[in-house]
Amino acid sequence: MNAPVLAVSNLAKHYRRGGQPFPAVDDVSFSIGPAETLALAGPSGSGKSTIARLVLRLIEPDVGRVEFEGADFLALSGAALRARRARFQMVFQDPLSAFNPRATVARVLDDPLRIHGLASRTERPRRIAALLERVGLEAGLAVRAIHEISGGQRQRVAIARAIATRPSLIVLDEAVSALDVSVRGQILKLLLDLQRQERIAYLFISHDLGVIRAVAHRVVILDAGRIAESGEARAVIANPQSAIGKALVAATPRLNRTRP
Amino acid sequence: MTALLSIRDLSARYRRDGVELLALNGISLDVEAGERLAIIGESGSGKSTLALAIAGLLPRGARIDGTIDWQASQFQTPRSGEIGSSVAGAPALKVGEGDDDSAISPLAGEMSGRTEGGAKDRQPLHLRPIGGRDVGFVFQDPSSSLDPVMPIGKQIAEVARTHLSLTWPEAYAKAKTLLERVRLPDPQSALRAYPHQLSGGQKQRVAIAAAIAAGPRLLIADEATSALDTIVQAEIVALIRRLVAEDGMTLAFISHDIALAATLADRIAVLRHGELIELGETRQILNAPRHAYTRALLDAHLGLDADPLLDRQGASA
Protein backbone atom coordinates (compact mmCIF):
# COMPACT_ATOMS: atom_id res chain seq x y z
CA MET A 1 0.00 0.00 0.00
CA ASN A 2 1.18 3.48 -0.85
CA ALA A 3 2.05 5.92 1.91
CA PRO A 4 -0.97 8.15 2.55
CA VAL A 5 -1.05 11.64 1.06
CA LEU A 6 -2.96 12.89 4.07
CA ALA A 7 -3.14 11.29 7.51
CA VAL A 8 -5.29 12.92 10.18
CA SER A 9 -5.14 11.61 13.73
CA ASN A 10 -7.19 12.42 16.82
CA LEU A 11 -8.23 15.79 15.45
CA ALA A 12 -10.42 17.87 17.77
CA LYS A 13 -11.83 21.39 17.73
CA HIS A 14 -14.19 22.81 20.33
CA TYR A 15 -16.19 25.97 20.06
CA ARG A 16 -18.18 27.62 22.79
CA ARG A 17 -21.92 27.82 22.36
CA GLY A 18 -23.96 29.51 25.05
CA GLY A 19 -20.94 29.44 27.36
CA GLN A 20 -20.62 25.66 27.03
CA PRO A 21 -17.75 24.01 25.15
CA PHE A 22 -19.22 22.32 22.11
CA PRO A 23 -17.27 19.74 20.09
CA ALA A 24 -17.34 20.71 16.41
CA VAL A 25 -14.80 17.97 15.69
CA ASP A 26 -14.03 15.28 18.24
CA ASP A 27 -11.28 12.67 17.95
CA VAL A 28 -11.39 12.25 14.17
CA SER A 29 -8.80 10.11 12.38
CA PHE A 30 -8.59 9.08 8.73
CA SER A 31 -6.11 8.85 5.87
CA ILE A 32 -6.23 9.25 2.10
CA GLY A 33 -3.95 7.44 -0.35
CA PRO A 34 -2.66 8.73 -3.70
CA ALA A 35 -5.38 8.95 -6.37
CA GLU A 36 -7.98 8.03 -3.79
CA THR A 37 -11.27 9.79 -3.04
CA LEU A 38 -12.36 9.83 0.58
CA ALA A 39 -15.80 11.33 1.17
CA LEU A 40 -16.94 13.02 4.36
CA ALA A 41 -20.71 12.75 4.76
CA GLY A 42 -23.08 13.83 7.48
CA PRO A 43 -25.88 16.23 8.33
CA SER A 44 -25.42 19.97 8.84
CA GLY A 45 -23.30 20.60 11.89
CA SER A 46 -21.68 17.17 11.82
CA GLY A 47 -18.22 18.69 11.39
CA LYS A 48 -17.56 18.08 7.66
CA SER A 49 -16.58 21.61 6.77
CA THR A 50 -14.75 22.20 10.06
CA ILE A 51 -12.54 19.20 9.24
CA ALA A 52 -11.84 20.67 5.80
CA ARG A 53 -10.83 23.98 7.37
CA LEU A 54 -8.66 22.24 9.94
CA VAL A 55 -6.70 20.19 7.42
CA LEU A 56 -6.28 23.27 5.23
CA ARG A 57 -5.06 25.13 8.33
CA LEU A 58 -7.61 27.88 7.82
CA ILE A 59 -8.31 27.28 11.52
CA GLU A 60 -6.05 25.58 14.10
CA PRO A 61 -7.17 22.42 15.96
CA ASP A 62 -7.21 22.10 19.76
CA VAL A 63 -5.42 18.77 19.50
CA GLY A 64 -4.51 16.29 16.81
CA ARG A 65 -2.04 15.68 14.05
CA VAL A 66 -2.25 16.36 10.32
CA GLU A 67 0.43 14.69 8.23
CA PHE A 68 0.63 15.77 4.60
CA GLU A 69 3.01 13.95 2.26
CA GLY A 70 4.79 12.56 5.31
CA ALA A 71 5.45 15.95 6.96
CA ASP A 72 3.85 17.34 10.12
CA PHE A 73 1.63 19.89 8.41
CA LEU A 74 0.65 21.70 11.62
CA ALA A 75 4.32 22.37 12.46
CA LEU A 76 5.07 24.08 9.15
CA SER A 77 5.24 27.83 8.91
CA GLY A 78 6.43 30.58 6.61
CA ALA A 79 8.05 29.59 3.31
CA ALA A 80 7.88 25.87 4.07
CA LEU A 81 4.11 26.09 4.63
CA ARG A 82 3.59 28.15 1.48
CA ALA A 83 5.61 25.69 -0.59
CA ARG A 84 3.64 22.76 0.79
CA ARG A 85 0.33 24.52 0.26
CA ALA A 86 0.93 24.50 -3.49
CA ARG A 87 0.55 20.71 -3.34
CA PHE A 88 -2.73 21.02 -1.43
CA GLN A 89 -5.64 22.80 -3.11
CA MET A 90 -9.32 23.43 -2.54
CA VAL A 91 -12.53 23.95 -4.51
CA PHE A 92 -15.60 25.32 -2.78
CA GLN A 93 -19.32 25.20 -3.48
CA ASP A 94 -19.63 28.68 -4.90
CA PRO A 95 -16.75 29.83 -7.08
CA LEU A 96 -18.39 33.23 -7.50
CA SER A 97 -17.69 34.00 -3.87
CA ALA A 98 -14.27 32.34 -3.98
CA PHE A 99 -13.06 34.62 -6.78
CA ASN A 100 -13.02 38.34 -7.35
CA PRO A 101 -16.07 38.44 -9.67
CA ARG A 102 -14.60 41.20 -11.82
CA ALA A 103 -11.30 39.43 -12.38
CA THR A 104 -10.83 37.75 -15.73
CA VAL A 105 -10.44 34.01 -16.05
CA ALA A 106 -6.82 34.59 -17.14
CA ARG A 107 -6.10 36.58 -13.99
CA VAL A 108 -7.56 33.89 -11.75
CA LEU A 109 -5.32 31.27 -13.37
CA ASP A 110 -2.28 33.55 -13.56
CA ASP A 111 -2.20 34.06 -9.77
CA PRO A 112 -1.11 30.58 -8.67
CA LEU A 113 1.43 30.28 -11.49
CA ARG A 114 2.99 33.62 -10.53
CA ILE A 115 2.75 33.30 -6.74
CA HIS A 116 4.27 29.85 -6.69
CA GLY A 117 6.82 30.76 -9.36
CA LEU A 118 5.68 27.97 -11.66
CA ALA A 119 6.04 29.80 -14.97
CA SER A 120 7.74 32.90 -16.29
CA ARG A 121 5.71 35.92 -17.38
CA THR A 122 6.13 35.03 -21.06
CA GLU A 123 5.31 31.40 -20.49
CA ARG A 124 2.18 31.98 -18.43
CA PRO A 125 -0.36 32.70 -21.23
CA ARG A 126 0.50 29.37 -22.83
CA ARG A 127 0.16 27.59 -19.49
CA ILE A 128 -3.21 29.26 -18.90
CA ALA A 129 -4.45 28.11 -22.30
CA ALA A 130 -3.27 24.59 -21.52
CA LEU A 131 -5.06 24.63 -18.15
CA LEU A 132 -8.30 25.78 -19.76
CA GLU A 133 -8.03 23.02 -22.34
CA ARG A 134 -7.32 20.53 -19.56
CA VAL A 135 -10.68 21.32 -17.90
CA GLY A 136 -12.61 21.37 -21.17
CA LEU A 137 -12.85 25.13 -21.69
CA GLU A 138 -11.94 27.11 -24.79
CA ALA A 139 -8.83 29.28 -24.63
CA GLY A 140 -10.96 32.26 -25.68
CA LEU A 141 -12.68 32.19 -22.30
CA ALA A 142 -9.51 33.60 -20.71
CA VAL A 143 -10.49 37.20 -21.43
CA ARG A 144 -13.97 36.90 -19.91
CA ALA A 145 -14.81 38.13 -16.41
CA ILE A 146 -15.67 35.56 -13.75
CA HIS A 147 -19.16 37.01 -13.28
CA GLU A 148 -19.91 36.70 -17.00
CA ILE A 149 -19.45 32.95 -17.33
CA SER A 150 -21.87 30.20 -16.31
CA GLY A 151 -21.77 28.37 -13.00
CA GLY A 152 -20.45 25.21 -14.62
CA GLN A 153 -17.71 27.11 -16.46
CA ARG A 154 -16.79 28.88 -13.23
CA GLN A 155 -16.42 25.59 -11.39
CA ARG A 156 -14.18 24.34 -14.24
CA VAL A 157 -12.06 27.48 -13.78
CA ALA A 158 -11.88 26.75 -10.04
CA ILE A 159 -10.66 23.25 -10.85
CA ALA A 160 -8.15 24.62 -13.38
CA ARG A 161 -6.78 26.92 -10.72
CA ALA A 162 -6.59 24.07 -8.24
CA ILE A 163 -4.60 21.84 -10.61
CA ALA A 164 -2.33 24.68 -11.77
CA THR A 165 0.14 23.94 -8.97
CA ARG A 166 0.10 20.16 -9.64
CA PRO A 167 -1.35 19.26 -6.24
CA SER A 168 -1.38 15.78 -4.72
CA LEU A 169 -4.59 16.55 -2.80
CA ILE A 170 -7.65 18.69 -3.48
CA VAL A 171 -10.31 19.37 -0.86
CA LEU A 172 -13.70 19.56 -2.63
CA ASP A 173 -16.18 21.15 -0.22
CA GLU A 174 -19.69 20.64 -1.68
CA ALA A 175 -18.01 21.43 -5.02
CA VAL A 176 -20.86 20.12 -7.18
CA SER A 177 -23.79 20.83 -4.86
CA ALA A 178 -24.86 24.09 -6.46
CA LEU A 179 -24.61 22.86 -10.05
CA ASP A 180 -27.47 21.77 -12.29
CA VAL A 181 -27.62 17.99 -12.58
CA SER A 182 -26.72 18.06 -16.27
CA VAL A 183 -23.55 20.04 -15.48
CA ARG A 184 -22.80 18.11 -12.31
CA GLY A 185 -22.20 14.85 -14.15
CA GLN A 186 -19.69 16.51 -16.49
CA ILE A 187 -17.78 18.08 -13.61
CA LEU A 188 -17.64 14.78 -11.72
CA LYS A 189 -16.32 13.04 -14.84
CA LEU A 190 -13.69 15.76 -15.24
CA LEU A 191 -12.60 15.29 -11.61
CA LEU A 192 -12.31 11.53 -12.10
CA ASP A 193 -10.29 11.98 -15.33
CA LEU A 194 -7.89 14.35 -13.58
CA GLN A 195 -7.56 11.94 -10.69
CA ARG A 196 -6.68 9.03 -12.97
CA GLN A 197 -4.21 11.00 -15.04
CA GLU A 198 -2.50 13.05 -12.35
CA ARG A 199 -2.94 10.73 -9.35
CA ILE A 200 -4.67 13.45 -7.32
CA ALA A 201 -6.32 12.47 -4.03
CA TYR A 202 -9.65 14.08 -3.15
CA LEU A 203 -11.16 14.85 0.22
CA PHE A 204 -14.73 15.03 -1.05
CA ILE A 205 -17.20 16.74 1.27
CA SER A 206 -20.85 16.30 0.40
CA HIS A 207 -24.24 15.89 2.00
CA ASP A 208 -25.40 13.84 -1.02
CA LEU A 209 -24.92 10.09 -0.66
CA GLY A 210 -25.87 9.52 -4.31
CA VAL A 211 -22.96 11.67 -5.47
CA ILE A 212 -20.61 10.09 -2.92
CA ARG A 213 -21.57 6.62 -4.03
CA ALA A 214 -20.86 7.60 -7.64
CA VAL A 215 -17.36 8.98 -7.14
CA ALA A 216 -15.82 8.08 -3.77
CA HIS A 217 -13.73 5.04 -2.92
CA ARG A 218 -14.31 5.31 0.81
CA VAL A 219 -16.67 7.27 3.01
CA VAL A 220 -16.51 8.57 6.56
CA ILE A 221 -19.94 9.33 8.05
CA LEU A 222 -19.87 11.99 10.75
CA ASP A 223 -22.36 12.82 13.46
CA ALA A 224 -21.93 15.69 15.92
CA GLY A 225 -18.22 15.94 15.20
CA ARG A 226 -17.43 12.24 15.64
CA ILE A 227 -16.96 9.42 13.15
CA ALA A 228 -20.11 7.29 13.24
CA GLU A 229 -18.82 4.78 10.70
CA SER A 230 -16.47 4.48 7.77
CA GLY A 231 -15.59 2.03 5.03
CA GLU A 232 -15.81 1.30 1.33
CA ALA A 233 -18.35 3.83 0.01
CA ARG A 234 -20.73 1.50 -1.81
CA ALA A 235 -20.69 -1.07 0.97
CA VAL A 236 -21.40 1.49 3.71
CA ILE A 237 -24.22 3.11 1.72
CA ALA A 238 -25.73 -0.27 0.80
CA ASN A 239 -25.71 -1.43 4.40
CA PRO A 240 -25.17 1.38 6.91
CA GLN A 241 -24.57 0.30 10.50
CA SER A 242 -24.77 3.58 12.45
CA ALA A 243 -28.02 5.33 13.28
CA ILE A 244 -26.97 8.43 11.36
CA GLY A 245 -25.84 6.34 8.37
CA LYS A 246 -29.23 4.63 8.29
CA ALA A 247 -31.03 7.97 8.61
CA LEU A 248 -29.02 9.51 5.76
CA VAL A 249 -29.70 6.56 3.46
CA ALA A 250 -33.40 6.54 4.36
CA ALA A 251 -33.70 10.29 3.68
CA THR A 252 -32.07 10.15 0.24
CA PRO A 253 -34.80 10.57 -2.41
CA ARG A 254 -35.23 7.63 -4.77
CA LEU A 255 -36.63 7.70 -8.27
CA ASN A 256 -38.27 4.25 -8.02
CA ARG A 257 -38.40 3.85 -11.77
CA THR A 258 -39.54 0.55 -13.12
CA ARG A 259 -36.51 -0.44 -15.13
CA PRO A 260 -37.24 -1.17 -18.77
CA MET B 1 -61.04 17.30 -11.24
CA THR B 2 -61.67 20.99 -11.40
CA ALA B 3 -58.92 23.44 -12.05
CA LEU B 4 -57.98 25.72 -9.20
CA LEU B 5 -56.29 27.93 -11.70
CA SER B 6 -55.78 27.96 -15.44
CA ILE B 7 -52.66 29.46 -16.94
CA ARG B 8 -52.84 30.35 -20.61
CA ASP B 9 -50.03 31.56 -22.87
CA LEU B 10 -48.17 33.05 -19.96
CA SER B 11 -44.99 34.87 -20.87
CA ALA B 12 -42.76 36.95 -18.63
CA ARG B 13 -39.88 39.18 -19.62
CA TYR B 14 -37.30 40.88 -17.45
CA ARG B 15 -34.63 43.37 -18.30
CA ARG B 16 -31.26 42.45 -16.85
CA ASP B 17 -28.11 44.42 -17.63
CA GLY B 18 -30.01 46.13 -20.43
CA VAL B 19 -30.84 42.81 -22.08
CA GLU B 20 -34.39 41.57 -22.26
CA LEU B 21 -34.74 38.08 -20.90
CA LEU B 22 -37.69 35.86 -21.77
CA ALA B 23 -38.16 34.05 -18.46
CA LEU B 24 -41.42 32.34 -19.37
CA ASN B 25 -42.51 31.59 -22.92
CA GLY B 26 -46.12 30.70 -23.62
CA ILE B 27 -46.88 28.50 -20.62
CA SER B 28 -50.33 26.90 -20.56
CA LEU B 29 -51.16 24.74 -17.59
CA ASP B 30 -54.07 23.89 -15.31
CA VAL B 31 -53.43 23.40 -11.62
CA GLU B 32 -56.12 21.00 -10.42
CA ALA B 33 -57.81 21.65 -7.11
CA GLY B 34 -56.32 19.44 -4.42
CA GLU B 35 -53.44 18.08 -6.48
CA ARG B 36 -49.76 18.09 -5.64
CA LEU B 37 -48.05 19.48 -8.70
CA ALA B 38 -44.27 19.58 -8.96
CA ILE B 39 -42.70 22.17 -11.23
CA ILE B 40 -39.14 21.15 -11.94
CA GLY B 41 -36.29 22.52 -14.00
CA GLU B 42 -32.67 23.61 -13.88
CA SER B 43 -31.43 27.12 -13.25
CA GLY B 44 -32.90 29.56 -15.75
CA SER B 45 -35.82 27.26 -16.57
CA GLY B 46 -38.36 29.80 -15.31
CA LYS B 47 -39.73 27.61 -12.52
CA SER B 48 -39.39 30.30 -9.85
CA THR B 49 -40.74 32.97 -12.18
CA LEU B 50 -43.79 30.80 -12.75
CA ALA B 51 -44.24 30.33 -9.00
CA LEU B 52 -43.98 34.08 -8.40
CA ALA B 53 -46.37 34.81 -11.28
CA ILE B 54 -48.99 32.46 -9.82
CA ALA B 55 -48.64 34.17 -6.44
CA GLY B 56 -48.66 37.61 -8.06
CA LEU B 57 -45.25 38.36 -6.65
CA LEU B 58 -43.31 39.15 -9.81
CA PRO B 59 -41.21 42.27 -9.38
CA ARG B 60 -42.21 45.51 -10.89
CA GLY B 61 -40.55 45.81 -14.24
CA ALA B 62 -41.44 42.29 -15.31
CA ARG B 63 -43.57 42.32 -18.46
CA ILE B 64 -46.27 39.72 -18.40
CA ASP B 65 -48.53 38.46 -21.16
CA GLY B 66 -51.20 35.82 -20.98
CA THR B 67 -53.72 34.96 -18.32
CA ILE B 68 -53.96 33.20 -14.99
CA ASP B 69 -57.60 32.50 -14.25
CA TRP B 70 -58.68 31.37 -10.82
CA GLN B 71 -61.71 29.17 -10.37
CA ALA B 72 -64.26 31.25 -8.52
CA SER B 73 -65.79 28.41 -6.52
CA GLN B 74 -62.38 27.61 -5.06
CA PHE B 75 -62.21 30.85 -3.19
CA GLN B 76 -63.15 31.72 0.30
CA THR B 77 -65.82 34.30 0.86
CA PRO B 78 -65.52 37.32 -1.39
CA ARG B 79 -63.82 40.19 0.30
CA SER B 80 -66.03 42.99 1.45
CA GLY B 81 -65.44 46.28 -0.22
CA GLU B 82 -64.41 44.79 -3.51
CA ILE B 83 -67.61 43.18 -4.56
CA GLY B 84 -68.87 46.45 -5.86
CA SER B 85 -66.15 46.65 -8.43
CA SER B 86 -66.62 43.11 -9.64
CA VAL B 87 -68.59 44.14 -12.64
CA ALA B 88 -67.50 43.68 -16.20
CA GLY B 89 -65.24 46.45 -17.30
CA ALA B 90 -63.51 46.75 -13.98
CA PRO B 91 -60.49 49.00 -14.23
CA ALA B 92 -57.65 47.28 -16.05
CA LEU B 93 -54.64 46.71 -13.91
CA LYS B 94 -51.47 46.72 -15.89
CA VAL B 95 -49.01 44.31 -14.52
CA GLY B 96 -45.65 45.59 -13.48
CA GLU B 97 -45.06 47.84 -16.45
CA GLY B 98 -42.41 50.47 -16.12
CA ASP B 99 -44.22 53.40 -14.59
CA ASP B 100 -46.61 51.39 -12.51
CA ASP B 101 -46.42 52.60 -8.95
CA SER B 102 -47.17 49.30 -7.28
CA ALA B 103 -44.15 47.75 -5.65
CA ILE B 104 -45.26 44.33 -6.72
CA SER B 105 -47.55 43.31 -9.47
CA PRO B 106 -51.18 42.92 -8.57
CA LEU B 107 -52.25 39.37 -8.00
CA ALA B 108 -53.04 37.24 -10.95
CA GLY B 109 -56.34 37.17 -12.70
CA GLU B 110 -55.60 40.07 -14.96
CA MET B 111 -52.49 39.35 -16.84
CA SER B 112 -53.42 40.78 -20.18
CA GLY B 113 -51.89 44.19 -19.81
CA ARG B 114 -50.09 44.00 -23.10
CA THR B 115 -52.73 42.38 -25.17
CA GLU B 116 -53.18 44.06 -28.47
CA GLY B 117 -56.53 45.64 -29.10
CA GLY B 118 -57.13 46.51 -25.49
CA ALA B 119 -58.74 44.63 -22.67
CA LYS B 120 -59.60 40.98 -22.80
CA ASP B 121 -62.30 39.54 -20.67
CA ARG B 122 -61.11 40.23 -17.21
CA GLN B 123 -61.83 38.35 -14.09
CA PRO B 124 -63.86 40.30 -11.59
CA LEU B 125 -61.67 41.71 -8.87
CA HIS B 126 -63.14 39.56 -6.13
CA LEU B 127 -61.96 36.49 -7.99
CA ARG B 128 -58.36 37.44 -7.70
CA PRO B 129 -56.53 35.66 -4.91
CA ILE B 130 -54.95 37.48 -2.03
CA GLY B 131 -51.36 36.64 -1.23
CA GLY B 132 -51.16 35.12 2.24
CA ARG B 133 -54.88 34.38 2.40
CA ASP B 134 -55.51 32.40 -0.75
CA VAL B 135 -51.91 31.61 -1.63
CA GLY B 136 -49.24 30.64 0.90
CA PHE B 137 -45.64 30.91 -0.25
CA VAL B 138 -42.60 29.19 1.25
CA PHE B 139 -39.25 30.40 -0.01
CA GLN B 140 -35.89 28.62 -0.10
CA ASP B 141 -34.23 30.63 2.62
CA PRO B 142 -36.30 31.10 5.77
CA SER B 143 -33.63 33.40 7.20
CA SER B 144 -34.50 36.00 4.61
CA SER B 145 -38.27 35.46 4.58
CA LEU B 146 -38.63 35.76 8.36
CA ASP B 147 -38.15 39.09 10.11
CA PRO B 148 -35.00 38.71 12.24
CA VAL B 149 -36.13 41.18 14.92
CA MET B 150 -39.73 40.04 15.41
CA PRO B 151 -40.68 37.08 17.63
CA ILE B 152 -41.88 34.22 15.47
CA GLY B 153 -45.23 34.03 17.27
CA LYS B 154 -45.99 37.57 16.20
CA GLN B 155 -44.95 36.90 12.60
CA ILE B 156 -47.42 34.03 12.37
CA ALA B 157 -50.14 35.81 14.36
CA GLU B 158 -49.86 38.82 12.06
CA VAL B 159 -50.85 36.69 9.05
CA ALA B 160 -53.84 35.23 10.91
CA ARG B 161 -54.90 38.66 12.22
CA THR B 162 -54.64 40.35 8.85
CA HIS B 163 -56.50 37.78 6.80
CA LEU B 164 -58.88 36.16 9.27
CA SER B 165 -59.88 39.34 11.14
CA LEU B 166 -58.84 37.87 14.47
CA THR B 167 -57.97 39.81 17.59
CA TRP B 168 -54.36 39.61 18.74
CA PRO B 169 -55.12 37.07 21.51
CA GLU B 170 -57.03 34.92 19.02
CA ALA B 171 -54.23 35.27 16.50
CA TYR B 172 -51.63 34.23 19.08
CA ALA B 173 -53.71 31.21 20.03
CA LYS B 174 -53.84 30.34 16.34
CA ALA B 175 -50.07 30.81 16.05
CA LYS B 176 -49.50 28.40 18.91
CA THR B 177 -51.73 25.80 17.28
CA LEU B 178 -49.81 26.26 14.04
CA LEU B 179 -46.46 25.79 15.78
CA GLU B 180 -47.86 22.55 17.21
CA ARG B 181 -49.01 21.50 13.75
CA VAL B 182 -45.54 22.06 12.24
CA ARG B 183 -44.12 20.12 15.22
CA LEU B 184 -41.93 22.80 16.68
CA PRO B 185 -40.83 21.68 20.15
CA ASP B 186 -42.35 23.62 23.05
CA PRO B 187 -44.71 25.86 21.02
CA GLN B 188 -45.68 28.05 23.97
CA SER B 189 -42.15 29.36 24.55
CA ALA B 190 -41.32 29.18 20.83
CA LEU B 191 -43.88 31.96 20.26
CA ARG B 192 -41.44 34.36 21.88
CA ALA B 193 -38.33 33.01 20.13
CA TYR B 194 -36.49 34.93 17.42
CA PRO B 195 -35.52 33.28 14.12
CA HIS B 196 -31.79 33.28 14.96
CA GLN B 197 -32.49 31.04 17.95
CA LEU B 198 -33.78 28.30 15.68
CA SER B 199 -32.04 25.81 13.36
CA GLY B 200 -32.52 26.02 9.59
CA GLY B 201 -35.11 23.26 9.64
CA GLN B 202 -37.02 24.85 12.53
CA LYS B 203 -37.04 28.21 10.73
CA GLN B 204 -38.51 26.54 7.66
CA ARG B 205 -41.20 25.00 9.90
CA VAL B 206 -42.03 28.50 11.14
CA ALA B 207 -42.13 29.86 7.59
CA ILE B 208 -44.54 27.06 6.66
CA ALA B 209 -46.70 27.84 9.71
CA ALA B 210 -46.90 31.48 8.59
CA ALA B 211 -47.65 30.44 5.01
CA ILE B 212 -50.66 28.32 6.03
CA ALA B 213 -51.85 30.60 8.85
CA ALA B 214 -54.75 32.05 6.87
CA GLY B 215 -55.81 28.69 5.42
CA PRO B 216 -54.76 29.24 1.79
CA ARG B 217 -56.22 27.11 -1.00
CA LEU B 218 -52.81 26.92 -2.67
CA LEU B 219 -49.44 26.38 -1.01
CA ILE B 220 -46.41 27.18 -3.15
CA ALA B 221 -43.07 25.81 -1.94
CA ASP B 222 -40.24 27.26 -4.02
CA GLU B 223 -37.06 25.17 -3.43
CA ALA B 224 -38.24 25.12 0.18
CA THR B 225 -35.90 22.29 1.16
CA SER B 226 -32.89 23.02 -1.04
CA ALA B 227 -30.84 24.75 1.64
CA LEU B 228 -31.43 21.96 4.15
CA ASP B 229 -29.45 18.78 4.66
CA THR B 230 -30.84 15.47 3.42
CA ILE B 231 -32.37 14.38 6.71
CA VAL B 232 -34.05 17.71 7.48
CA GLN B 233 -35.18 17.91 3.85
CA ALA B 234 -37.01 14.59 4.20
CA GLU B 235 -38.65 15.82 7.42
CA ILE B 236 -39.87 19.04 5.79
CA VAL B 237 -41.20 17.17 2.75
CA ALA B 238 -43.10 14.85 5.11
CA LEU B 239 -44.45 17.89 6.97
CA ILE B 240 -45.64 19.54 3.75
CA ARG B 241 -47.27 16.29 2.63
CA ARG B 242 -49.14 15.99 5.94
CA LEU B 243 -50.30 19.63 6.12
CA VAL B 244 -51.49 19.62 2.50
CA ALA B 245 -53.50 16.45 3.15
CA GLU B 246 -54.94 17.69 6.46
CA ASP B 247 -56.06 21.04 5.08
CA GLY B 248 -57.02 19.86 1.61
CA MET B 249 -54.64 22.38 0.08
CA THR B 250 -53.39 22.36 -3.48
CA LEU B 251 -49.59 22.19 -3.62
CA ALA B 252 -47.18 23.63 -6.16
CA PHE B 253 -43.77 22.20 -5.29
CA ILE B 254 -40.96 23.93 -7.16
CA SER B 255 -37.68 22.01 -7.26
CA HIS B 256 -34.53 21.35 -9.25
CA ASP B 257 -34.55 17.78 -7.91
CA ILE B 258 -36.72 15.42 -9.95
CA ALA B 259 -36.27 12.56 -7.48
CA LEU B 260 -37.35 14.69 -4.53
CA ALA B 261 -40.29 16.08 -6.51
CA ALA B 262 -41.36 12.56 -7.45
CA THR B 263 -41.62 11.52 -3.79
CA LEU B 264 -44.36 14.11 -3.28
CA ALA B 265 -46.08 14.97 -6.54
CA ASP B 266 -49.14 13.56 -8.31
CA ARG B 267 -48.05 15.32 -11.50
CA ILE B 268 -44.76 16.78 -12.68
CA ALA B 269 -44.30 19.74 -15.02
CA VAL B 270 -40.84 19.98 -16.59
CA LEU B 271 -39.66 23.45 -17.54
CA ARG B 272 -36.65 24.37 -19.66
CA HIS B 273 -35.59 27.79 -20.93
CA GLY B 274 -38.97 29.21 -19.93
CA GLU B 275 -41.00 26.60 -21.80
CA LEU B 276 -43.19 23.81 -20.51
CA ILE B 277 -41.43 20.78 -21.98
CA GLU B 278 -43.55 18.02 -20.55
CA LEU B 279 -46.42 17.57 -18.12
CA GLY B 280 -47.71 14.28 -16.86
CA GLU B 281 -48.54 11.94 -14.02
CA THR B 282 -45.47 11.30 -11.88
CA ARG B 283 -45.36 7.62 -12.80
CA GLN B 284 -45.52 8.43 -16.52
CA ILE B 285 -42.80 11.07 -16.25
CA LEU B 286 -40.50 8.65 -14.41
CA ASN B 287 -41.14 5.54 -16.44
CA ALA B 288 -42.16 6.77 -19.85
CA PRO B 289 -40.89 10.32 -20.34
CA ARG B 290 -41.84 11.63 -23.75
CA HIS B 291 -39.25 14.35 -24.04
CA ALA B 292 -35.52 13.71 -24.45
CA TYR B 293 -34.74 16.45 -21.93
CA THR B 294 -36.86 14.76 -19.25
CA ARG B 295 -35.00 11.52 -19.97
CA ALA B 296 -31.67 13.34 -19.67
CA LEU B 297 -32.70 14.80 -16.30
CA LEU B 298 -33.69 11.36 -15.05
CA ASP B 299 -30.47 9.81 -16.31
CA ALA B 300 -28.39 12.54 -14.66
CA HIS B 301 -29.87 11.71 -11.27
CA LEU B 302 -27.24 10.02 -9.13
CA GLY B 303 -29.38 7.79 -6.98
CA LEU B 304 -28.43 5.02 -4.62
CA ASP B 305 -29.00 2.53 -7.41
CA ALA B 306 -27.20 4.39 -10.22
CA ASP B 307 -24.13 2.99 -11.92
CA PRO B 308 -21.07 4.54 -10.26
CA LEU B 309 -18.98 6.84 -12.42
CA LEU B 310 -15.91 5.64 -10.63
CA ASP B 311 -13.60 3.21 -12.32
CA ARG B 312 -12.80 0.84 -9.49
CA GLN B 313 -9.40 0.03 -10.99
CA GLY B 314 -8.25 3.44 -9.87
CA ALA B 315 -8.66 2.57 -6.23
CA SER B 316 -5.44 2.45 -4.34
CA ALA B 317 -6.26 2.25 -0.69
Topology, element by element:
The complex is a heterodimer of chains A (about 260) and B (about 325).
Chain A: E1 6-17, E2 20-32, E3 37-41, H1 48-55, E4 63-68, E5 71-72, H2 78-85, E6 88-91, H3 95-98, H4 105-115, H5 124-134, H6 151-163, E7 169-173, H7 181-198, E8 201-205, H8 209-215, E9 218-223, E10 226-232, H9 233-238, H10 243-251
Parallel strand pairs in A: 3-8, 3-9, 6-7, 7-8
Antiparallel strand pairs in A: 1-2, 1-4, 4-5, 9-10
Chain B: E1 3-16, E2 19-32, E3 36-40, H1 47-55, E4 63-70, E5 135-138, H2 142-145, H3 152-164, H4 168-181, H5 187-190, H6 200-211, E6 218-222, H7 230-247, E7 250-255, H8 258-262, E8 267-272, E9 275-281, H9 282-287, H10 292-300
Parallel strand pairs in B: 3-7, 3-8, 5-6, 6-7
Antiparallel strand pairs in B: 1-2, 1-4, 8-9
Describe this structure in words.
The complex is a heterodimer of chains A (260) and B (317). By secondary structure, chain A is α/β, with parallel strands linked by helices. Chain A has two domains: 6-87 and 167-251, 3-Layer(aba) Sandwich (Rossmann fold); 99-166, no CATH class. Chain A is built from ten helices and ten strands. Chain A has helices at residues 48-55, 78-85, 95-98, 105-115, 124-134, 151-163, 181-198, 209-215, 233-238, 243-251, and strands spanning 6-17, 20-32, 37-41, 63-68, 71-72, 88-91, 169-173, 201-205, 218-223, 226-232. Chain A has a six-stranded mixed beta sheet, with helices on both faces. A four-stranded antiparallel beta sheet of chain A has the order 2-1-4-5. Chain A is globular and about 55 Å long. Chain B has ten helices and nine strands. Chain B has helices at 47-55, 142-145, 152-164, 168-181, 187-190, 200-211, 230-247, 258-262, 282-287, 292-300, and strands at residues 3-16, 19-32, 36-40, 63-70, 135-138, 218-222, 250-255, 267-272, 275-281. In chain B, helix 3 crosses helix 4 (168-181) and helix 3 runs parallel beside helix 6. Classes of the chains: A alpha/beta (260), B alpha/beta (317). The interface between A and B is large, with 48 and 39 residues.
